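hey so i finaly got around to running the thing on Enoyl-CoA hydratase from Falsiroseomonas tokyonensis. pasting the sequence first so u can double check i didnt mess up the copy paste, my clipboard has been acting weird all day
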Amino acid sequence: MPDGTNPLLLRQDSETGVTRLTLNRPDSRNSLSFAMLGALQHALEEIARDARVRVVVLAAAGPVFCAGHDLREITAHRNDEDAGRGFFEAAMQRCATVMQAIVALPQPVIAEVQGIATAAGCQMVASCDLAVASEAAKFCTPGVDIGLFCSTPAVALSRAIAAKPALEMLLTGAMVPAAEAQRLGLVNRVVPAAELTAEALALAGQIATRSAHAVRLGKAAFHRQRGLPLDQAYAHCAAVMTENLLAEDAAEGIGAFLAKRSPVWQDR
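ok and heres what it spat out for the 3d tokens, dont ask me to read them lol
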């Protein structure tokens, strides 16, 4: 599979089914400009249709993972005839679309966080299914420091960690070190900086060896049931498991387990 060439968002596909997307605006701290959000949206739409992709790793170039929205771009639009309202609405909607696309993507998404992730950057990490962080990584939602509460990052953050620590981050804007982020549940693993990419790719590679059909069913069911009452969650997941049991890969996997051999997935 060929590597992507978008200068804002580099795409690299591997033969194992792991696709690595790299935010590539290091001079702007990988801030989420309108164009960057568009590149992300386009890439996620393409990946959702690409059965060759089994897992996505979302990384970033330079020392900062993502500094959130592009404040210079936002400030420039204050000179618009409507004082920026139209652009602000469009930017927030595009950002919300991207974050929801990460959650809705059939393939699992792993954030590979090498540095600071602030505001909408922290939101993006919280939106990913899994996250691996460098020991140097830090996380915060510092909107309150500039008179702008991180309301949209709060949506993802409050779904990734408990309410009280999420609200403390939102109300104080305090920087949370990687180890604390792991304790809160915002990231899964914290490793030395030199081991970060290898660790993220190893985790992605492990997931990529599983039935893509089962993983896709499971990811969708996991996110769906979280918003349901307990009885409806069980009903939904029971229906999903029934469909999963009827799939070729489930028959193959169970048969392989009983026969003590390795399964051969058909991804259906």
